[in-house]
């Protein structure tokens, strides 16, 4: 499978690779940064997450891209799509703490949602988050996400599900 690269004004969304190890390790071993993603976890498990993210493309036909800042050529996070067993497909992202507050998550998410509608030909793009994740909810709303329903998830929690409008 050929994983596409997406270019935005300031970013490249590139296939996950060994080039991402340092960013995954920095993110997942940082308890504060990765708390919404099950962290902190060990460096070995962070490498496992990278391998899972790459494998998702081959198993599901979609996945997350590594976000590379054009100016510095540095991997600063991920953005794309994830779907666990029994879970709905979702737009997901994370950024290293030093890259937050610069609009990168929004820029990458707009590109990923457009790709899903225009290249994957999906009829619907959704996301969800823990009720306490106010920063994620704020970003989803800035992206035009509209709460479509509330559902029970395999982990026993209920979450709001947001649908994004189709973009070109």
* Gyration radius from CA atoms, angstroms: 15 Å
> Which range does the strand content fall in?
25-35%
What is the typical, i.e. mean, pLDDT?
A: 96
Q: What is the topology, as strand order, of the major beta sheet?
A: 1-2-3-4-5
For the termini, the CA-CA separation is 24 Å
Give start-end ranges of low-pLDDT stretches: none
Quick summary:
With 168 residues, the protein is α+β, with helices and mostly antiparallel strands. 30% of the residues lie in helices and 27% in strands.
What would your notes on this structure say?
The structure is a single chain. The protein is α+β, with helices and mostly antiparallel strands and 168 residues long. It contains four helices and eight strands. A five-stranded antiparallel β-sheet has the order 1-2-3-4-5, sandwiched between helices. Strands 6-8-7 form a three-stranded antiparallel β-sheet. Strand 4 and strand 5 form a beta hairpin. Helix 1 packs across helix 2 (43-60). The radius of gyration is 15 Å and the shape is globular. It starts with 5 loop residues before the first strand and ends with a strand. The model has no long low-confidence stretch (mean pLDDT 96).
SSE blueprint:
Elements (H helix, E strand, L loop, with lengths): L5 E2 L3 E4 L6 H8 L14 H18 L3 E6 L4 E9 L7 E6 L8 H15 L6 E4 L5 H9 L3 E7 L5 E7 L4
Helix pairs in contact: 1-2
Which key terms come to mind for this protein?
three-stranded antiparallel beta sheet; globular; five-stranded antiparallel beta sheet; alpha+beta; 168 residues
């Amino acid at each position: 499978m050929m994983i596409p690269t997406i270019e935005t004004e300031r970013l490249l969304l590139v296939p996950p690779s060994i080039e991402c190890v340092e960013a995954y390790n920095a993110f997942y071993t940082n308890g504060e940064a990765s708390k919404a993603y099950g962290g902190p976890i060990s460096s070995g498990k962070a490498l496992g997450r990278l391998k899972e993210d790459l494998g998702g493309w081959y198993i599901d036909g979609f996945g997350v891209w590594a976000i590379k800042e054009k100016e510095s050529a540095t991997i600063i996070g991920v953005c794309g799509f994830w779907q666990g067993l029994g879970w709905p497909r979702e737009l997901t992202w994370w950024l290293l703490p030093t890259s937050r507050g610069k609009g990168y998550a929004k820029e990458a998410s707009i590109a990923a949602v457009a790709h899903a509608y225009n290249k994957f030909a999906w009829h619907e793009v959704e996301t969800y988050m823990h009720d306490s994740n106010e920063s994620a909810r704020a970003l989803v709303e800035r992206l035009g996400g509209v709460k479509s329903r509330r559902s029970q998830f395999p982990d026993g929690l209920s979450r709001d599900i947001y649908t994004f409008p189709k973009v070109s």
